[in-house]
């Protein structure tokens, strides 16, 4: 769908996003705009397998999307990111897409699609609030928009022009009632979610371009930024005080996701272009654990099951891999996560 940062064509079956819609069902969106519905069981599906979980494709459907108008290409294939501007809404009934030259956000369903143009340039990132009533988008020209959302009907509510370069990521944190945007200009802007007021700007050291931002609400609340240029993760308090930094060998932090363990300790999970999954505790980014999930393709999407026992990983090769916690699954006494295979 979009340009590949390494100049390699991503396979059409690559899984760009996965999302649970119930305890036993999740949806994924492939590069070719195909919605895949999976059935999931956090226990053996039958007595013939030793696998502690089961996952299988239930059905697939194609969204009504068209990248061309009068034979003219409308998708911006120059985006240099693995974190594609794509979101899944309403339990998979709606697909939200950016990445168009004219700045549109497209909401597609199986039969129809709707487009809204409020950005003047390509939308590079999209984030939704937990209840899908608000959305935040960022663009190549540095603008950030907050949208009021009513299913497929979107209306621009606020327009911010606080960045001087491309917006690389946006994140909504409902528990803090905040959202944040990062930019190649070396800044992270933090806003009140409903009042839509800029409350703080945090800068990377030496104004290094920022490629990702993460807001964590677990005490002490923090903001994490990743800079591809120097392969560094930085952690700041929510008030902008520098906490720590650490080196990351990968060039890209893909699908950053937050999860909480049974001791209410929050950690950051992300994938890399080298097919690894990395887990770091917040806010100090310490105790990193790395898992080689797919040695020949990038990790593009991550989701944690609702019982917190499994981490599902969607990859560029179109496969889903499952990381399991042996303690929670009562497989053995080891405290490290292990790889599992998805059954199809």
Please provide a written account of the structure.
This protein is mostly beta strands and 344 residues long. It has one helix and 30 strands. The protein has one helix at residues 326-329, and strands spanning 15-22, 25-30, 34-41, 54-62, 68-69, 72-73, 86-89, 94-97, 104-108, 113-117, 123-128, 134-139, 144-150, 153-160, 167-173, 178-183, 187-192, 198-203, 212-216, 222-227, 232-237, 242-247, 254-260, 266-271, 276-281, 286-292, 299-304, 310-315, 320-324, 338-341. The strands form eight sheets. A four-stranded antiparallel beta sheet has the order 1-2-3-4, with no helix packed on it. It has a four-stranded antiparallel beta sheet with strand order 7-8-9-10, with no helix packed on it. It has a four-stranded antiparallel beta sheet with strand order 11-12-13-14, with no helix packed on it. The radius of gyration is 19 Å and the shape is globular. It starts with 14 loop residues before the first strand and ends with a strand.
- Return residue spans where pLDDT drops below 50 for at least 5 consecutive residues: 1-8, 327-337, 339-344
Percent strand: over 45%
* N-to-C CA distance: 26 Å
Summed over residues and divided by their number, the pLDDT gives a mean of 87
The tally of beta strands, per DSSP, is 30
Major β-sheet profile: 4 strands, antiparallel
- Based on CA atoms alone, the radius of gyration comes out at 19 Å
Question: Quick summary of this structure?
Answer:
The protein is mainly β. It has 1 helix and 30 strands.
